[in-house]
Amino acid sequence: MPCLRRSLLTDALLWAALAVPALAVDRIGLNEPRPWWQEAAGLAVLAVAALVWRARPVVAVLLVAALGLAASRSLFTLSYGPALSLFCLLLGLRGARMREAPLAFGAVAAAGTVAIAVRGADPVVEWLVLAGTLLFGAVFPWLAGRHWRQRRELVAAGWSRAAQLEREQRIVADRARLLERARIAQDMHDSLGHELSLIAVRAGALQVAPGLAAPHRDAARELRAAAADATDRLGEIIGVLREGEPDAEPSLAPAGETIEDLVARAAGSGLPVRLLSPGEVRPVRAGVPERTAYRVVQEALTNAAKHAPGAPVTVVVAPAPDGSTTVTVTNGRAGGPGGESSPFAKAHPGTGSGLLGLREGVALAGGTFTAGPYADGFRVTARLPGPGGTPPRTDTPAAQDGAPEVYLLARRRARRRAVVSFAVAGGVGAVLVAGALGWYAYTRTHTALAPADYASLRIGDTEAEAGRVLPGRAVTDPPVERAPGPPPPGADCRYYRASPELFVSVDHFRVCFLDGRLVSKSVVPTLRTTEQHIREEEKEWVR
User: Fold this and answer.
1) What pLDDT does residue 518 have?
2) Cβ neighbours of 28 (radius 10 Å)
């Protein structure tokens, strides 16, 4: 209810503001006097327009345009012109559909053209005035409203985009923290898990060593069991830390350690492993994502020690001519030498996070990864691209930072369309105004009859004799209502301006011919002169 009362109050104030020119123009003599019922009807139509402009702005424009056409066929009227411009501005601000306004303006132009044509007088000036009034009094305010509306929408979209970018920045920061947490978790899984596996291997070898006393053998067994339990607990913790964050970066190798060092250290711990390359044993070639290759070998050795104790393990690093490198780790079946007494002879179910991390790490490096049973054992194969072969990631928030550029481009396009629209409308308006002013000046100067020439006319002169001083054109919109009296019956009356001055109200001369001879001549005063004459007669009558 408060909103409804506020809207009604706003509409009432709007109607009051539009009613001021509708009443004041007649009072100060800028319009021809109108009957009171016409003024009341105009105010009623303005009230209806003020009530419906929120829900139906195009209806309000058409109502006010109908008032303007009723008052003037050229639509140019000081009484309702401000209302037309204001409602066209509001139509641009609130109009839901773009095509409503052009259709409404076309309908008004068609109605005005028909009204001008029906009148039968010279239509050029009135049609030019109609076109200029439509352009400057309707189209320009509507374009201004559209521009204002688009600017508000762009500003709102800009603030929305800024809020979205702020949210994205928070998401990026949260993701960075989660990635760092996942990286630390993966580092713990790869490094500590590998070391615990090697400790367990060494403890298993110590447990079966000949000549070891029973207490020492029991201590080695407990150490082996503790290492196995620690590995399982570590896998559970890593699984919790990595939950929902599979894209962790590959872990880094210890400073200065290569794949050869890793294999040698595993072999020194009792794991039956050897490193091979085609024709020779060699490190990973320069330029290959070495930390990913290191991680593949590290995780594969850890899984072999845990799930295939005692089985022989072969590591093959094979560089290719295209710069890529293929890393293959193959283990045999569990139960080889030392397999029965290995610390992992008892099955420990794995979480699968290690192979999952390997697959994602290789994919991040732009390579391919496969893992699965092979012969009696298991094989892990990773093909890694050479230098420059890693494709860029396009699914990260950072890759979407071009979105503000799209927003700025849309803003530039909207501004360019507005400028072009105003420029085209302004150019057309300038041509119309120039044409209207030129035609107005031509008709006013070529319909002026000098007072001396008017005085030289005599009743009874022939039309040819009077034509020597009469202008070549007559006024097409004569002030018939201000004539001092009706013309002679059947006479052909012509009206001429008493002065060639422009943009001022001047007296007119009426010259009437009947059967080719001048039968009447009279002066038609201006509106102010007529009112002043009436007031003087009233004063004289009072005296």
Assistant:
1) 92
2) 8
